[in-house]
Every structure is written in structure tokens, then in C-alpha cells.
Amino acid sequence: MHYKLLGFAHLGSVRQFFFERVTTTVAPVRFTVLADLGMARKFNLSLQQLPSICARLLEATREDQPAGTLLLTEADMGISAAENAAAAADDAARRAMRSYRGALAAASRTNKRADSAPGISAETAKTGEKQ
User: Fold this and answer.
1) Is 23 contained in some domain?
2) SS3 for 21-43, per residue?
3) What's the pLDDT tens digit per position in 57-84?
């Protein structure tokens, strides 16, 4: 069983997403999911994320759920916003680690250059004194 996005319509501050539940054994069943765009902005969710959030809501329903209309709630959007925040924190941590590793590599290259400079000992390179 999976859900196929058929399209959407915009009604004021609400976006309607039209889905179809597709199974191999039963005829397709159509669903509409309503998403409040003001609430999506409140949670910093992009319009591009809304269809996948709606599909996740549908996947949580029973397989024998009759066709109908569902509402994307504040709780649903809050979960997605928390996931976005966690992903952003992970990305920031990875960027910081790359920056740290880059700084270590640059320092290592600088020390190797100073160690191999002609007529300069490693100790002199560190202290900055001339021989």
C-alpha cells in the first residue's frame, strides 16, 4: 500500500492535497488532507514539505480507512518542525567538525613547511628567532 499525490488546490489560507491510496487488492481510495498555511509558517515549514507531511499522516491511518478528508494538525506540524531543527543541528555539528578538521590540517601543513625550510631548525621556526 502506498499513497500517490494527485494534486492540490489553494483555498484562502488552506491548501488541499489530494491523494489516492493504491493497493494491489482493493480499488484506489481518494483522500483529501487540509493544511493551514499560516500554521505551516508558524513552524517554519516550507510549502514543499507539506505533501510529504500529509503522506506521513495518511500512512499512519488504518488500511481500511474509508475515503475522506483529514486535517493536518498543529501536533503533526510540530513533529516535523522538531525533526527539521534536529537535522539543522546535526548539519551545524558536521560543518563545525569539518571546519575544525580543516584548521588542524592547515596547522599541520604549516608546521611541516616550517620544519622543512632550509637553514631553519624546527625549534627556531616555532620561536621565530633567527640563527
Assistant:
1) yes
2) EECCCCCCEEEEEEEEHHHHHHC
3) 999 988 888 889 999 999 988 877 777 6
